[in-house]
Here is the input.
Amino acid sequence: MKSSSSKGPRRRSSLVARPRLTALFDGALDYPVTLVCAPLGYGKTVAVDDWLSRRKIEAVKLDCDCADDGNGLASLCDSAEPSGVFVLENAQCLQSAPQLRKRVKRFLAHVPTSAHVIVVSRCVPEIGLSRLRLEGDLLEIGVGPLAFTEFEARDLLLRAGFEAAEIDCGVIVEKTGGWSAALRLLCAAGFDGVEDAILWDRMEAMLFSYLDEGLLSEMPDDEASFFVGASHLGEFCVSQVAFCLEIDEANAIAGIDRLVKDGLVQPEGFLPNGEMRYQC
Here is the structure.
């Protein structure tokens, strides 16, 4: 478990000002725990660091990398009266560390008024957050607030050097879902207008490279293969995944359940035939 102190991380000049998100984080200190939860590439850590920097808040950051020995987080959980802001990054790793997860759960149930904990995770870890939610002790910042609005996407592209006339942010946000990683890769891919099919193909290739480095390489081969196949469909239901990937429906259900748990797929409502519709 890696730990480091942060005296408000230096803010990169290329960061887009996002006052609505900053205002949301400003309410964090009214709660003992804040959960920042979204899949890879939504800028969770960037958003937290930007807020800490703007508000000049010192924080202790703990990386919940279960390959480490866990001493940093274990020490926090054992502290009699911790004080300050603590950021638990990569909290999804706690899912594979049941003993440490139990200690974190006990700690979060009784966070003293002198401390505030920000949990950063790709999925909702099983650390007692449901109870905190019911008791009104949890602030949640998810995909919706983290996704870029049209105005924020426009600011990002203008800062990247694109001309205002080239930018149709309505189309861009619709195609990318406001996903930070996609918008930044769009800048890197070269922008010749939203109707440029080659651009979107190039960006898709870059996205898969990004996912391979940051996500797929950490997955078992069968789960990574399932995710790539499902993501090509975009929106899908169980029967469609089973047909396209040539697997039985039981395996399709199991695969989708894993992706939902990891925060990579979201249920989007029911189809007319009664099946749940999912989206990557």
Observations:
- Residues 5-13 have pLDDT under 50 and may be disordered.
- The longest strand covers residues 115-121.
